[in-house]
């Protein structure tokens, strides 16, 4: 949604609120409007329930939208109950009000689903489902800032599929695409949901995750390389991969471009060492020897 428009800015603020805060704000707004409508029934305040329903659908989801729609529809007709009880006219007005508010709720929920779907696609590589390069870089920059404040250690790993061009040349681009998707599924399945996984080039991928303690970074890197290597070896067109891993302690300078370059250089060291290798280095120790190949058995997946 266009954040330059007032509605877009309001939607962003609603989305940034914790769920309990959003509920509190919506219930306060419903209560205040209900009181005003009861005190001044001829003021024409009923349309103001519509943006509250929209806010509930946008910030809290489908069930909340329908609940608020029904609640506000009931509150909208309460002042008229003092006019002489239930009548056919009041029943019709109640039915119209309920149908209208439910329609508003259904519309905003449908729009939110479409918005989320399009936003998801905009952040993803269409071929593999991984984050696209631009989004991964943004997540990396954000993670560096958060990790620095929280004194957390990060692990950045860059993968390059060995001899991938040979698969395209020998079996066609459809086979190459299948290899990319196989790798992406294996890598995404080997990390946690909160970790970042992106496609940053043709056959280059990157993973970013938090590690604790810091010394666990090297073990996680070797384990990750072992897992994705096993997935690639079991594919229809087996290939290997070279990985450069960079352990980033919280005290090192937070320069995303420089850190990406360091991880990329580690990957090229693995390539030059004979491929199908894992080169591990530390951001604060550029000369650290990390030339260990991940040829051992699979280990426990990082928690």
UniProtKB/TrEMBL annotation:
Residues 152-283 form the GGDEF domain. One of its GO terms (cellular component) is plasma membrane. It holds the Pfam family GGDEF. The chain crosses the membrane at residues 43-60, 65-82, 94-111. InterPro entries: Diguanylate_Cyclase, GGDEF_dom, Nucleotide_cyclase, Rev_trsase/Diguanyl_cyclase. The keyword Transmembrane applies. It comes from the Bacteria. Its EC number is 2.7.7.65. The keyword Metal-binding does not apply. It catalyses: 2 GTP = 3',3'-c-di-GMP + 2 diphosphate. One of its GO terms (molecular function) is diguanylate cyclase activity. SMART domains: GGDEF. Residues 283-303 are annotated as: Disordered. It is an enzyme of class 2 (transferase). Keywords: Membrane, Plasmid, Transmembrane, Transmembrane helix. GO terms for biological process: cell adhesion involved in single-species biofilm formation; negative regulation of bacterial-type flagellum-dependent cell motility. This is diguanylate cyclase. It comes from Sphingobium baderi.
């Amino acid at each position: 949604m266009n954040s330059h428009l007032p509605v877009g800015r309001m939607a962003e603020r609603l989305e940034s609120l914790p769920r309990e805060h959003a509920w509190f704000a919506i219930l306060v707004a419903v209560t205040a409007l209900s009181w005003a409508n009861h005190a001044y029934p001829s003021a024409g305040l009923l349309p103001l329930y519509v943006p509250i329903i929209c806010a509930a659908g946008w910030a809290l989801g489908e069930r909340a939208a329908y609940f608020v729609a029904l609640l506000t529809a009931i509150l909208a007709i309460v002042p008229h109950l003092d006019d002489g009880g239930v009548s056919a006219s009041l029943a019709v007005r109640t039915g119209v009000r309920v149908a209208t508010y439910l329609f508003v709720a259904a519309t905003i929920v449908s729009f939110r689903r479409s918005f989320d779907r399009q936003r998801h696609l905009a952040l993803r590589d269409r071929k593999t489902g991984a984050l696209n390069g631009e989004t991964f870089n943004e997540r990396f920059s954000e993670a560096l800032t958060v990790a620095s404040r929280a004194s957390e250690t990060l692990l950045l790993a860059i993968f390059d599929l060995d001899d991938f061009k040979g698969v395209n040349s020998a079996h066609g681009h459809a086979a190459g695409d299948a290899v990319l998707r196989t790798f992406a599924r294996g890598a995404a399945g080997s990390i946690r949901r909160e970790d970042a996984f992106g496609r940053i080039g043709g056959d280059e991928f990157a993973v970013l995750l938090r590690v604790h303690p810091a010394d666990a970074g090297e073990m996680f890197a070797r384990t990750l390389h072992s897992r994705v290597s096993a997935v690639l070896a079991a594919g229809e067109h087996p290939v290997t991969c070279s990985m450069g891993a960079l352990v980033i302690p919280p005290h090192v300078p937070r320069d995303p471009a420089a850190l990406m370059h360091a991880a990329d250089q580690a990957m090229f060291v693995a390539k030059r060492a004979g491929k199908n290798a894992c080169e591990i280095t530390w951001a604060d120790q550029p000369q650290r020897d990390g030339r260990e190949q991940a040829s051992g058995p699979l280990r426990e997946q990082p928690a």
